[in-house]
Amino acid sequence: MAAGYSARMTPTSAPFDDLDRKIVTALMANARTSFAEIGAAVGLSATAVKRRVDRMRETGVITGFSATVEPAALGWRTEAYVEVYCEGAAPPRRLAEVMRNHPEITAAMTVTGGADALLHVRARDVEHFEEVLERIRVEPFIRKTISYMVLSHLLPESPEAGASQPAPEA
Amino acid sequence: MAAGYSARMTPTSAPFDDLDRKIVTALMANARTSFAEIGAAVGLSATAVKRRVDRMRETGVITGFSATVEPAALGWRTEAYVEVYCEGAAPPRRLAEVMRNHPEITAAMTVTGGADALLHVRARDVEHFEEVLERIRVEPFIRKTISYMVLSHLLPESPEAGASQPAPEA
DNA sequence: CATGAAATAACATGGGT
DNA sequence: ACCCATGTTATTTCATG
């Protein structure tokens, strides 16, 4: 049951009520909270909470559980966003392939505006970042890059803090 | 015990060996893995693993455990990066204060380049995003914004995938 | 609800300084 | 001899059918 995503996870596919929302919020705050404790908070039995969590994993609402780590503590002290400009029409498939070759690229996406892609890059230090950049620049299709080094964070780096809010749902 | 960070978490403060690295890697892959299972994988007893995890939480290496969620499933279908330009000298403290007022801002940082800050924003849809943008624009200090809407992701949105690698450590 | 597994605390041991 | 990290055991809580 590797990375089993449900075929359908459109907004209205699986019923997603306030209890689910509260359960997700609790698990985003602490993924190791016991089902019993969550149940006590939302008014369900531990078993009922487990059933809902299992269902949300199956439907792809919850994609996993992860420890959040201070990157600097692991030796990643440099962070940057990199705009990538490609030669001619940039084939997204080939572009994605290139991105997978560089473990320092933690996120890559196509965006509006002039750039063909925007990358998030983590490196040990400025020297390492420069080396990564040179490695990216010699890839086929890549014409030029523009880097924005992150100087300091204005908000705590909580994992998807914003998306953990009550959830809008139109 | 709100946000209790240890006084010292400089790179060399707490010994951080290969076992710690393996434990962190395991917990990033699945934050609900039992200490016993991790122990079996790294060659330690469950108790020893727990002690190391507790220590890493105290020293700030591990900042928490979080469920990873598909934002679209929670109703957040629009994502953008926003460059912020301020009037005159932008005071980072006041800027941070402003950022906290908008829950849709999931990350905010100062960066090199012309912009005073770079924001990551999640919204329900384009209409909602426009509303957020207007709300940000009328804040004091804010002179103008430039938005880059995310079109599609080229890599799976794993939580800090890159930083989970073996860890460089100079 | 019942059973096996996990978390956690208390206590004991061995290595290294 | 001390300190630190680990292992062992026992108890409570949890996961899960």
Could you give the topology of this structure?
The structure is a homodimer of 170-residue chains.
Chain A: H1 18-29, H2 35-42, H3 46-58, E1 62-69, E2 78-86, H4 92-100, E3 105-111, E4 117-123, H5 126-137, E5 142-153
Antiparallel strand pairs in A: 2-4, 2-5, 3-4
The structure holds a DNA duplex (17 and 17 nucleotides).
Name some characteristics of this structure:
homodimer, 170 residues, alpha+beta, 4-stranded antiparallel sheet, 32% helix, disordered N terminus, DNA-binding
Descriptive report:
The structure is a homodimer of 170-residue chains. Chain A has 170 residues and is of the alpha+beta class. Chain A is 32% helix and 25% strand. The first copy, chain A, has helices at 18-29, 35-42, 46-58, 92-100, 126-137, and strands spanning 62-69, 78-86, 105-111, 117-123, 142-153. Chain A has a four-stranded antiparallel beta sheet. In chain A, helix 2 (35-42) packs across helix 3. The first copy, chain A, is elongated, with a radius of gyration of 20 Å. Mean pLDDT of chain A is 88; it is low at 1-12. At the A-B interface, helix 1, strand 1, helix 4, strand 3 and strand 4 of A face helix 1, strand 1, helix 4, strand 3 and strand 4 of B. Chain B binds a DNA duplex (17 and 17 nucleotides) through residues 34-36, 44-48, 50-52. Chains A, B: GO terms for molecular function: DNA binding. Chains A, B: Residues 16-77 form the HTH asnC-type domain. Chains A, B: This is DNA-binding Lrp family transcriptional regulator. Chains A, B: It comes from Streptomyces umbrinus. Chains A, B: Keywords: DNA-binding, Transcription, Transcription regulation.
